[in-house]
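Risk register update: the risk of archive-format incompatibility is retired. Evidence:
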Amino acid sequence: MAPLSEVSVPPGSVLHKSLGSASFFDAYAAPLKRCELTPAEIFLQAARATPDWVGHAMAIRNAIVSRLGLKDVGNMRPAADRPGSDYRIGDRMGIFTVFAADDRELVLGIDDSHLDVRVSVLKSVPSDEAHYVVSTVVHVKNWLGRLYMLPVGRIHPFVVRAMMRRAAV
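Archived output:
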């Protein structure tokens, strides 16, 4: 497997069934060197390795959208001292809420008045090549969501790939 590659949202992901009604989706796969990590631990490593430029972009995003009545989602980086095993459904991991979690897949999301976002971290450990896939699916609700996705849809791939490259998992 290439170090990082764009792929289809895996059929085994819980997000796959929502692709037909999605306004935006993408997925990226990377090798998994540390097969003992859970999907939550993989996400935490990636989120904690978020480049500083992403943090600055999020601060700008939050300043702009809060004036439009949208959520200030905070910082991408979750608490550094909390292990993945401590998170439960409904807890916040960085900017996201945990919607589902097991040994194979973590599903995170943000619901707002303009769109709903779901992010999956799907772990795959076949006999030949362990890897993980980060998928994002967005359902736009209104014109503000469509406007919001114009820049975000273009920036999002750079953010995800940067986080995955720095994750070292």
